[in-house]
TrEMBL record, chain A:
TM segment ranges: 20-40, 52-73, 100-119, 131-155, 175-198, 210-230, 270-291, 325-348, 360-385, 397-414
Span of the signal peptide: none
Annotated GO MF terms: branched-chain amino acid transmembrane transporter activity
A Pfam family this chain is assigned to: BPD_transp_2
Protein's UniProt name: Amino acid/amide ABC transporter membrane protein 2, HAAT family
UniProtKB/TrEMBL annotation, chain B:
Domain ABC transporter: 8-240
Gene Ontology terms, MF aspect: ATP binding; ATP hydrolysis activity; branched-chain amino acid transmembrane transporter activity
Organism: Pseudovibrio denitrificans
GO biological process terms on file: L-amino acid transport
Organism ancestry: Bacteria, Pseudomonadati, Pseudomonadota, Alphaproteobacteria, Hyphomicrobiales
Membership in a protein family: Belongs to the ABC transporter superfamily.
The UniProt record lists the keyword Oxidoreductase: no
One Pfam family named in its UniProt record: ABC_tran
Protein name per UniProt: Branched-chain amino acid transport system ATP-binding protein
Top-rank lineage group of the source organism: Bacteria
Keyword Cell cycle in record: no
Key words of the record: Amino-acid transport, ATP-binding, Nucleotide-binding, Transport
SMART domains: AAA
Length: 444, 243
């Protein structure tokens, strides 16, 4: 059955591609193949130029391109042939190509440091890996905030507070008790989650604009406290000398017992950078994994329902208090993890790193990516953070260009880059009816 | 019927929105297996009464009891877990979630033990929903959304179904279909239904008993047929709508 379908797909694709090639040939013969030109040199004599190579190229490109598209992208039993609909893929970004994009990016993320090392050498690649670490940090923050804003629909403008709590938890625990990164990482997450609940309680009844204002204030309060509690946090001087993470007890140091020594490598400071890259990569993937799992569980579905309609949620017997608090706590926890990573990467933190602008950037990543979309967050983080570095050459116009891009994205895709919401459940393969991808958004 | 204890009993309920009193001491009973309807004009307090049963807003005076248990001051989500389900006014389905996900939300409280069975039952009752199970709630027509709202409420296996204006904004033929489904649920499953309606003719024809509410108080009560034949009811609520 499967083989037969494949067979008929192959035949249909071939037929369709041949048709396309013939049409191309007919058109290209006249439009590309023959060229009237004015001969330079003696007088203005017209002459006909033949360009059969160009025609052949065009025909081959159309044939091959159409064939490949038919086989792998426009997965139709009857390959598109005539009619305008045949020229369009089946429905926006089909699940097949979306999956390919996802796995492509995943593979790219895994091999990135080595590919960069290979091409640019350890010195040249360092700044790019650093940038990739930064992007991944924001991907993780975006995914964390996505739980609160994207899934539960609670507009949080003070997300940076949890990032700060995570960073300071690690820095202070290391400073006062000498705890290592691996002990502090879970502690920072727990503390941030705890602060998430503390913030959650007073704002339970608030929604929309009011919630946004209170969370904004909360973010500022944390920063102001960090700034003014000089004896404890070092105030504006910040905390420095934050210990670096170890690789299962192996420090990234030169000489005996270090990482390079243990594995018999030549010491190179890039090892730590690559290690940090994979560390944040794994942390981000854990965030993603947990979110995706939760989305399919009752609590995740309750978050989404809460975003859609709080009154209906209550009418269905959902405890909205707990639902909101878990969203705040989980979002905060991932923010805290990212914060302690930030602290260990920088080795120095100060309240300056946790201004409102950070919250705004993270929120912009979530909104531009499409609320609730995990893939959208990745794309938006790459565009926002990577793009921000990329546009450095524009200097003072950078912000202008940047703002313009954001406006264009919002005009062009008002619901964010990835606006289609994938349903978290489908009954069976034979479920007929119109797939959710084909339907426009409801008025939500 | 009056010998048994009512499933839902409302006694002297007074509900306020801030300082404004919406309900002035309402008494109402719903017995097991009945369809009871509450009719009244816009702003009479019908929906307020239904929401008071659900605990948002809570009654300031009086009591609401269900199965003999006082639920007046319980939090809403707990009330909705005791066997009461509600299809709220304006349907309030989750627009960006699919039909199937909407139904799963309805069944969340009941757990997933009977989910498939309940889902089959819901699709039997409203075959249209089965066709549209992968479609987003917000893209359904008004009638389909109302069907979804009722089906979603039924997913929690309620003993008492509260329906707030299921005919709101729907074409007459859809209204008939929905009321037929309600009658069917009552007939075959013995489901108790408390129905708040403006469409007095349909509601009273369907219901075993009815109450008429004016300005936050019950002014008339009787069987559906009795109320339909009363001159005051005809004059006030059936003018032009009796077809």
């Amino acid at each position: 059955m499967q083989a037969r379908q494949r067979d008929s797909l192959l035949v249909a694709s071939l037929k369709d591609s041949l048709g396309g090639a013939v049409i191309t040939f007919a058109l290209a013969c006249v439009m590309v193949g023959l060229k009237v030109d004015v001969a330079s040199g003696r007088g203005a004599e017209l002459f006909l130029e033949h360009r059969w190579l160009a025609v052949a190229t065009a025909v081959i490109v159309v044939f091959a391109g159409r064939f490949l598209l038919n086989m792998f992208f426009w997965k139709r039993e009857d390959a598109p042939s005539i009619g305008i609909s045949g020229f369009l893929p089946k429905g926006g970004l089909g699940t097949g190509s979306a999956n390919m994009l996802k796995y492509g990016m995943l593979v790219l993320a895994v091999v990135l440091p080595f590919a960069l090392m290979f091409w640019l050498g350890s010195r040249g690649s360092r700044q790019y890996i650093d940038l990739a670490i930064l992007v991944l940090t924001y991907v993780m923050l975006g995914w964390g905030l996505n739980i609160v804003v994207g899934l539960a629909g609670l507009l949080d403008l003070g997300y940076v507070a949890f990032y700060a709590v995570g960073a300071y938890s690690y820095a202070l625990l290391a400073h006062y008790f000498g705890f290592s990164f691996w002990i502090c990482l879970p502690l920072a997450g727990i503390l941030a989650a705890f602060w998430g609940i503390i913030l959650g309680f007073p704002v339970l009844r608030l929604r929309g604009d009011y919630l946004a204002i209170v969370t904004l204030a909360f973010g500022e309060i944390i920063r102001v406290v960090l700034l003014n509690w000089y004896e404890f946090t070092g105030g504006p001087d910040g905390l420095s000398g934050i210990p670096r993470p170890s690789f299962f007890g192996l420090e990234f140091t030169r000489g005996e017992g270090g990482f390079a020594d243990f594995f018999g490598l030549k010491y190179n400071s890039i090892h730590r950078i690559i290690f940090l890259y994979y560390l944040i990569f794994i942390m981000a993937m854990v965030t993603n994994f947990v979110t995706m799992r939760l989305r399919r569980m009752p609590i995740g579905r309750a978050w989404e329902a809460l975003r859609e309609d709080e009154i209906a949620c209550r009418a269905l017997g959902i405890n909205t208090t707990n639902t909101k608090l878990t969203a705040f706590a989980l979002g905060a926890m991932f923010g805290g993890f990212a914060g302690s990573f930030f602290a260990t990467r920088q080795g120095f933190i100060s309240p300056e790193s946790f201004t409102f602008l950070e919250s705004a950037i993270i929120l912009a990543i979530v909104v531009l990516g499409g609320l609730g979309s995990q893939m959208g967050v990745v794309i938006a983080a790459v565009v926002m953070i990577g793009g921000f570095e990329f546009f450095r050459e524009f200097e003072e116009y950078r912000m202008l260009v940047f703002g313009l891009i954001m406006v264009v994205i919002m005009v062009w895709k008002p619901r964010g880059l990835v606006s289609s919401r994938t349903p978290s459940v489908a009954l069976s393969k034979n479920a007929k009816g119109i797939s959710a991808d084909l339907v426009q958004e409801g008025h939500g | 019927m009056s010998a048994q204890q009512p499933l839902l009993s409302i006694r002297g309920v007074q509900t306020f929105y801030g300082k404004i009193q919406a309900l002035h001491g309402v008494d109402l009973d719903v017995y097991e297996g009945e369809i009871v309807t509450l009719i009244g004009a816009n702003g009479a307090g019908k929906s307020t009464l239904m929401m008071t049963v659900c605990g948002t807003p809570q009654a300031r005076h009086g009591s609401v009891s269900y199965c003999g248990e006082d639920i007046t001051y319980k939090p809403t989500f707990e009330i909705m877990r005791t066997g009461i389900a509600q299809s709220p006014e304006g349907r309030r389905i989750f627009p960006r979630m699919t039909v199937l996900e909407n139904l799963m939300m309805g069944g969340m409280v009941a757990g997933n033990e009977h989910f498939e069975e309940d889902l089959r039952r819901a699709f039997e009752l409203f075959p249209r929903l089965k066709e549209r199970q992968q479609q987003r709630g917000g893209t359904l027509s008004g009638g389909e959304q109302q069907m979804l709202a009722i089906a979603r409420a039924l997913m929690s296996r309620p003993r008492l179904l509260l329906l707030d204006e299921p005919s709101l904004g729907l074409a007459p033929i859809i209204v008939s279909q929905i009321f037929e489904a309600i009658a069917e649920l009552n007939r075959t499953d013995g489901l108790t239904v408390f129905l708040v309606e403006q469409n007095a003719y349909h509601a009273l024809k369907l219901a075993h008993r009815g109450y008429v509410m004016v300005n936050g108080t019950i002014t008339m009560t009787g069987t559906g047929k009795e109320l339909l034949s009363r001159e005051e009811v005809k004059a006030a609520y059936l003018e032009g709508g009796a077809h």
